[in-house]
């Protein structure tokens, strides 16, 4: 049967790839530790996504065609976290590509869903900042995880054992450790409502 033959070939291919990946493992992975993307790797992936969204709007001539203000807000805040830059509410509203009142409604919804928090500036109470909650930050890391590891592997000219898992576990088995490490890197300099 053709479908069985395809499954057999896929199995053989996966076996060959895992053998090559184990044999060609870079020196910094010799101890079995996975390659962990840096904050710069996460930022490169997030900015690429953001820039693609803006380019798409430019090409088709209208941000309304692809309106996802909640995604734009989360993406903008994720980039702010990666840059360790607090985001004022007005900046977040502008980044959402919708009128300010609409953006504020979306921010309120995201706040009710425990995805963002607002806090006042300690030195000037007129300024209000918006920040991803740990729950949202964890979600954003998970969304970009595979692309970020692909980027990290490509930069280092090899496929990390983490993908194929010398022990057979692969990326999914290590998700929690990866997310925890990424969150620690990203929140290291976090200010505000923490």
UniProtKB/TrEMBL annotation:
An example molecular function term from Gene Ontology annotations: DNA binding
Domain of life: Bacteria
Matching SUPFAM superfamilies: Winged helix' DNA-binding domain (SSF46785)
InterPro entries: HTH_MarR-typ, WH-like_DNA-bd_sf, WH_DNA-bd_sf
Keywords: DNA-binding
Pfam families: HTH_27
All copies of domain HTH marR-type, residue ranges: 71-136
Transmembrane segment boundaries: none
Protein's name according to its UniProt entry: Winged helix DNA-binding protein
Organism: Novosphingobium album
């Amino acid at each position: 049967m053709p479908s069985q033959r395809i499954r057999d070939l896929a199995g053989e291919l996966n076996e060959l790839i895992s053998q090559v990946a184990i044999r060609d493992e870079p020196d910094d992975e010799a101890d079995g530790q996975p390659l962990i993307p840096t904050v710069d790797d996460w930022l490169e992936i997030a900015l690429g996504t953001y820039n693609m969204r803006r380019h798409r709007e430019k090409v088709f001539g209208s941000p309304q065609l692809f309106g996802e203000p909640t995604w734009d807000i989360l993406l903008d805040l994720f980039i702010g976290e990666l840059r360790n830059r607090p985001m004022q509410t007005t900046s977040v509203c502008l980044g959402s590509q919708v009128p300010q009142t609409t953006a504020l409604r979306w921010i309120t919804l995201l706040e009710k869903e425990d995805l963002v928090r607002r806090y006042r500036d300690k030195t000037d109470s007129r300024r209000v900042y918006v920040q991803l909650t740990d729950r949202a930050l964890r979600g954003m890391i998970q969304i970009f995880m595979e692309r970020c590891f692909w980027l990290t592997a490509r930069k280092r000219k090899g496929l990390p054992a983490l993908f194929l898992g010398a022990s057979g576990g692969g990326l999914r088995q290590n998700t929690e450790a990866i997310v925890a490490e990424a969150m620690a890197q990203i929140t290291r300099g976090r200010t505000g409502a923490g």
